[in-house]
Amino acid sequence: MIFIPDSSVLILKFKExxxxxxxxxxxxxxxxxxxxxxxxxxxxxxxxxxFLNIILFIFKFNEFKYFIDKNLIxxxxxxxxxxxxxxxxxxxxxxxxxxxxxxIRFFIFYFIIYSILIKYNFIIKYLGYFYLFIIIFLISDxxxxxxxxxxxxxxxxxxxxxxxxxxxxxKVLASFIIRITPIALSLILWSNNIKSxxxxxxxxxxxxxxxxxxxxxxxxxxxxxxxxxxxxxILQQEKILNLSKMxxxxxxxxxxxxxxxFSNKYKFTQTVKHTYNQIYFDxxxxxxxxxxxxxxxxxxxxxxDNLFLGGGPNNYRYLYKKYDIDQNxxxxxxxxxxxxxxxxxLSGLFIYIYxxxxxxKLFFNSLYKKxxxxxxxxxxxxxxxxxxxxxxxxxxxxxxGVGSLSFxxxxxxxxxxx
Length: 418
Fold this sequence. Notes:
Structural class: mainly alpha
Oligomer: single chain
Number of strands: 2
Mean pLDDT: 89
Strand content: under 5%
């Protein structure tokens, strides 16, 4: 349906290569495959996978020494030290340390992924198709929930306009799909020319676009169009899509929008009107909504009162009470950049600008050098750390897992294809 190669051939080739892998490394490889599945199953499953990997890593540490990059270790330790120091000097030390001190588990787990992919790079292609299968499966399950009001495991939809499939009560299906899709495409393109896979890419994007209307996550549309326009630019640069084909694709997307709007005109109109009223309220432009603006204003005051190290990681839920700002009640400020400012102060601002500038530089360099597998990884990471749009909690384990998964793959590709 979406131009996936013969699955039986892929499985046979994977089994042949996998049989030659050391026993303990097989566990690491399976964990890399199953990590996105654990994000669907829930944060507890994700934590178990990371915990088991770290325990095995400790026992097999000597086998990983070869892959250690001392400069990268120094940068990480500096960032980690700043975050821990911010927690220790905050007003709510214990709560903040619970969020900051265990961040090291992500670094270790991503180092494991990096090392294993360098050691067994044959799995990269299979990872791409497996992640792609997960995305298609989730979207198919979503459509079942839309039609029958329950998915294949009889999980009911949240409301007539909000469907989350396997995620149940959590409104994160679009967040998962839009961040994992660029990773899947990147892994597939690493070992394939984009000219041989553009039908797959365009078919998948249309499939995703249609699904977004039923998730109730408006930010997903923003990220989708960023992904779409980058993809169209790449295809145009490679002379794969001419003007007529691009117009045809855009007409298909317009037809989908019109079909959804016509099938439920009232709800579609209400969603558009609600979005407009949130952004432009009381004849004033708002930072997405009155609530989002209140979160941002509160975080900026926290930053002003704790200039250098901020109010402490994940402490917004306690600190907002100090400020007399209407509708600022929340566990976090719902914006990655704003949270860096409020939680980590100028030190967080420096870290953020450093990472974002490196990411932007890598994105344009990769685009110029036609390393499109890196372009897609940059997009996935940008969807996590972007400063412009609403986001989840920076220190939430699920959000960090789904948002930062592209990190180890970026370092693998930088090393493998210089």
